[in-house]
Design brief:
Elements lengths: L3 H23 L2 H12 L1 H26 L5 H11 L6 H6 L3 H25 L5 H23 L8 H20 L1
Helix pairs in contact: 1-3, 1-4, 2-3, 2-8, 3-4, 3-8, 4-7, 6-7
Length: 180
Amino acid sequence: SIIGPELYGKYAFSMILGLFCAQFIVFSTEATGRFLKNTMGDERAFNAVSFLRLLHFLVILIFSALLAFKYDFEIILGMIAVAIAGLNSSYIYEWKHEQAKYSVVFLIEKIIYISSAFVFLYFFNFTNIYFLFLIMLLVTFSSCYFQYNYIGVYKVSFNFSDVIFVFKNNYMMYLTALLT
């Protein structure tokens, strides 16, 4: 490995933590998205799912602040960079039967990250994982921003009972996903 065993271990650990966090942010809403849309309607479901995901992301940020006392900042940054992927809008693309568009956006996101990491690792011999995570953070955040703007914006409103409805309908699926 070009980054060495210690940095690779930090990289892998950050990825694992980030994937758990992303799964928490998504909270199985990608699996129940169609049901939620059919039950609540597009705008209400979008607002409830988006707010629940943002609320979970806030919990992850608080969790990250607590972990900062134990782990290096690089690990925390990597965890957040991976977790941001949980804010994606794949469920909206599915509602609109435009999964191919989402796949293209996701593919471009990954190509940009991998090619950027490759260039910095191999051509500039830049082996700082902080920089790799920063690239991932920026590319993933930019992709999420593009996804929401590309698919179109719903009227944003907040109804706490809708968020509770989504939580109640998804928590068992989320726990099942964690156990598998």
